[in-house]
């Protein structure tokens, strides 16, 4: 892990499962409300970084992006990615597996 993002072992296991199922993946930290503020894990070819996205770091080689404005608003956080039971309401890949990623202040 590198940069301002780390992950629990449970999150790393889930990321490895998703990469085996979908190929290369990437995270985007949304700033939306409710489940929209959860980190979203998408296939890399479905989420090319935009000009306002900041690479916060990598988890086991998986890039983790945040919108620059969101990064400023959250005062340049260090994030720990974990998983919790229950599917999320986002389009994130892990949902059908009965878990969802969560971001905690690191």
Explain this structure to me?
The chain has 106 residues and is of the alpha/beta class. Helices cover 19% and strands 40% of the residues. The protein has a five-stranded mixed β-sheet with strand order 1-5-6-3-4. A three-stranded mixed β-sheet has the order 2-7-8. The radius of gyration is 12 Å and the shape is globular.
Structural class: alpha/beta
Q: Indicate the multimeric state.
A: single chain
Secondary-structure element pattern, one letter each: EEHEEEEHEE
What order do the strands of the largest sheet run in, or round the barrel if closed? Answer: 1-5-6-3-4
Classify the helix fraction into a percent range.
Answer: 10-25%
Query: How many runs of DSSP E, i.e. beta strands?
Result: 8
Distance between the termini: 13 Å
Main sheet, how many strands, which sense, barrel?
A: 5 strands, mixed
The portion of residues forming beta strands comes to 35-45%
Radius of gyration: 12 Å
Mean pLDDT: 89
Bulk shape: globular
| Uncertain ranges | none
Put simply, the count of helices is 2
Question: Topology, please?
Answer:
Elements: E1 2-3, E2 5-7, H1 9-22, E3 25-29, E4 39-43, E5 53-59, E6 62-67, H2 68-73, E7 79-85, E8 99-105
Q: What descriptive keywords fit this protein?
A:
alpha/beta, 5-stranded mixed β-sheet, 40% strand, globular
In short, what is this structure?
This protein has 106 residues and is an alpha/beta fold. It is 19% helix and 40% strand.
């Amino acid at each position: 892990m590198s940069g301002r993002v780390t992950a629990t072992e449970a999150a790393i296991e889930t990321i490895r499962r998703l990469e085996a199922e979908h190929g290369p993946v990437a995270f985007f930290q949304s700033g939306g409300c409710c489940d929209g503020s959860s980190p979203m894990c998408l296939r890399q070819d479905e989420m090319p970084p935009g000009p306002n996205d900041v690479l916060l770091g990598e988890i086991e080689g998986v890039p983790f992006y945040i919108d620059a404005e969101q990064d400023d608003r959250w005062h340049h956080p260090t994030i720990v990615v974990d998983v919790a039971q229950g599917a999320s309401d986002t389009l994130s890949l892990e949902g059908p597996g009965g878990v969802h990623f969560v971001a905690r202040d690191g």
